[in-house]
Design brief:
This protein is mainly alpha-helical and 497 residues long. It is built from 25 helices and no strands.
Length: 497
């Protein structure tokens, strides 16, 4: 995450925060920027558009039973409706001088963060209780801000506006920045894993809404800071709405991004971000050997779960997930009579099978987005005692991602049924992994995989089960055509590695 954030997120946030602070605290409040009619003409239509978009996100979540989508829709609705009330109350248009316009805008983000509590408190007991009643919670936060907006429009003087730079304003700014930073970084993590534009756009949108609150520290009405705050606040909401709806309309896969109730599921993000060539590789494996295809799908999922438990950053987590999915892709060029031989392999046949690590690396290396994964594929049969292949690496020289895939690969191979044998009992497989820790498999990787299995169990219905089956052409061709499509030039290129 730090690598991704350092590229643009931190500079963007830091730069915008400094600019907002300068315009709000360090620059003259230029009254010649005052134009209530223009402000009304800009804020009201854009806030209305935000409200319509938020309603669409909310409706999508409710109709498709996507808890987090509905909750995020209610958050966006809260900001939009109160911002609309703020725009309608701008003095000099429909209303004269009134405190309601500031009350509405200052309340919008704190109210939205209250609506987002089930998301912000993800993983806590209280958050879990709210999550179980997500429909009622979402609808409550449709009604509450709408009622508050109507009240302030009917009685603009119902509350006094907190002074800019006062204690209330500072609390609003701090809460807003903290809450939107959490949401923004979570969607940035999804982007790092799945590489989908919708997640990146949503991340920008959430943090923009928080940055706009800095104006409450001192920006006067119609000052440059006031105008900039409105611009980035409205742009932020539109960014989030656009990102979420784009994920739905482009991929019809919003359920894959946000379907887990109140959790950011890296597996869902990874699946949505898989490129066509990855689907081709997995589809080709299925045509060659369905057993191997199902094996790599389970390995990819469990490896990613173990990577999460090991607290890998999102870029490394993505590589582990892809490494698990593609670790056996080199077997596409392994002769069928050897790959599917039920008995013991000869030394020559074993050497041929062991070539799959090099073949797989050569098949992935030409694709820039898979180059990092190629190293995991090459090294997933290395051993800490130095007796593994193809390079005889030992101890810390073995990449952590390859270590995790190696342990998960062994686990799944031991416990899964094959046409020529039944899978062994789980306890026996666990004992074999423990006995081999430090010699056959890195001990840290064994520990993290076994802990994950103890707490969440093995993969039974793979979340990645549709990989290779949803890309039309990749799933319809014959095996030879699919293998050719996966190789940059030909099978000879893989053999030359």
């Amino acid at each position: 995450m730090l690598r991704v954030a350092s590229v643009w997120w931190a500079p963007f946030v830091g730069g915008m925060a400094c600019l907002m602070a300068f315009l709000s605290l360090g620059s003259p409040r230029l009254q010649d920027w005052s134009n209530p009619t223009l402000a009304f003409a800009i804020v009201v239509p854009l806030a209305s558009a935000c409200a319509v978009g938020a309603a669409a996100v909310l409706a999508t979540g409710l109709l498709r039973r996507l808890a987090e989508v509905a909750l995020l829709g209610s958050v966006l609705w809260t900001i939009s409706v109160l911002s609309l009330a703020h725009g309608l109350l701008i003095p000099g248009t429909l209303y004269g001088a009134n405190p309601g316009t500031m009350v509405a805008v200052m309340a919008s983000l704190p109210a939205a963060l209250l609506a987002a509590l089930p998301v912000l408190l993800d993983g806590t007991a209280f958050g879990g209780r709210l999550a179980r009643h997500w429909r009622a919670w979402s609808l409550t936060w449709v009604a509450l801000p709408a009622g508050a907006a109507v009240l302030v429009l009917v009685r603009p003087d119902v509350l006094s506006a907190p002074p800019a730079g006062g204690t209330v304003a500072i609390a609003v700014v701090l809460a807003g920045l903290c809450g939107t930073t959490v949401l923004s970084l979570r969607h940035l993590r999804l982007y790092a894993i799945g590489r989908r534009a919708g997640s990146l756009v949503a991340s920008i949108g959430f943090i923009s809404a928080g940055l706009a609150t800095i104006a409450f520290l001192g920006a006067g009405p119609m000052s440059p800071g006031w105008w900039l705050a409105h611009a980035i606040d409205i742009a932020g909401v539109l960014f989030v709405v656009t990102g979420l709806l784009a994920a739905h309309w482009r991929d019809r896969s919003l359920a894959l991004v946000l379907s887990p109730v109140l959790t950011r599921d890296p597996l869902a993000a990874l699946e949505l971000g898989l490129t066509p060539v990855v689907h081709q590789f997995i589809a080709a494996l299925e045509h060659k050997d369905a057993v191997t295809r199902d094996h790599v799908v389970r390995v990819g999922e469990l490896a990613m779960r173990a990577g999460e438990r090991a607290r890998l950053d999102p870029v490394a987590l993505r590589a582990v997930g892809l490494g698990g999915l593609l670790h056996d892709v080199g077997k596409l060029v392994t002769p069928d009579e050897i790959l599917m031989k039920p008995g013991e392999l000869t030394d020559a046949e074993r050497a041929t099978v062991e070539r799959h690590t090099l073949d797989g690396e050569a098949m992935l290396a030409p694709y820039p987005h898979l180059a990092a994964v190629a190293g995991i594929v090459r090294s997933h049969h290395e051993r800490p005692d130095g007796t593994g292949y193809p390079d005889g690496l030992s101890g810390p020289d073995i990449p952590l991602g390859a270590s995790i895939v190696s342990v998960v690969d062994a686990w799944d191979a031991m416990v899964s049924d094959r046409p020529y044998r039944k899978g062994m009992p789980h306890e026996r497989a666990r004992a074999i992994l423990r006995d081999g820790a430090g010699t056959q498999w890195p001990g840290a990787a064994v520990d993290v995989v076994l802990t994950e299995l103890d707490e969440r169990g093995p993969v039974r219905a793979p979340a990645l089960g549709r990989v290779g089956r949803d890309r039309g052409a990749a799933a319809r061709g014959d095996a030879d055509a699919l293998i050719d499509a996966c190789l940059p030039d030909s099978a000879g290129l893989a053999r030359a590695a």
